[in-house]
Amino acid sequence: MRCFIAIELDNDYFRELQNNIKEHIKGTFPKTFHLTLKFLGEVEDDAVNNIKETLSNIKFESFKISLSKIGRFPNENYIRVIWIGLEPKEKIIELQKKIDNELLRLGFKKEKEFEPHLTLARVKFIKDKIKFNEFIKNIKVEKLEFDFDNFKLIKSTLTRNGAVYEEIEKYS
User: Which of 44, 84, 89, 100 yields a CA-CA distance of 20 to 30 A from 143?
Assistant: First the structure.
């Protein structure tokens, strides 16, 4: 099964941003929003219990997550993903490293680079890149806050209508 570890966040504001972005690009737009802490990929069914047990060893404190800025991966000249950044980066990265370090014991590799973000859109085509980049630069991100007190191990099933997510385990 295809799995990842994430913090789920949701707000109508993300859909509002997507609707504004849709006017400028052709692409795919997630229906749910999460911060992926670690993508595990295909995992054998019998390995899931080891992953669940390993993740249960991770200790963390709750904190508030807020929105920072709109960004583009890999860069503004070649845009494939439009995202919104999350803060405090240091605390989120600290949690991600704890997860990485625990999963090393099970043979998973460490993440090379980690940028705390929510994906708003995956870009297939931009009608006018100059106009779009100007539009992105002028977005004033709302200072929304979310209480973070858990992360989840999630199963992702790819379908014709997009990915379907199923919670396997929740860690508080």
Answer: 100
Name the percent of the chain lying above pLDDT 70: 100
| Closest listed residue to residue 84, CA positions, set 66, 73, 69 | 69
Q: Which residues pair with 162 in a beta bridge?
A: 159
Q: Among this protein's residues, is 34 annotated catalytic?
A: yes
The rounded percent of the chain whose pLDDT value lies above 90 is 91
Rounded average pLDDT over 73-79: 93
Selecting among 117, 120, 151, 153, the annotated active-site residue is: 117
Whether 24 is catalytic = no
- Domains in the chain, CATH or no CATH each: 2-171 (3.90.1140.10)
The β-bridge partners of 84 are: 70, 118
Q: Are 70 and 139 in contact (CB under 8 A)?
A: yes
Catalytic residue among 5, 21, 34, 55: 34
Altogether, the residues listed in the chain come to a count of 172
**Cβ within 8 Å of residue 10, ≥6 positions away:** 32, 33
Predicted confidence band of residue 155 (pLDDT cuts 50, 70, 90):
very high
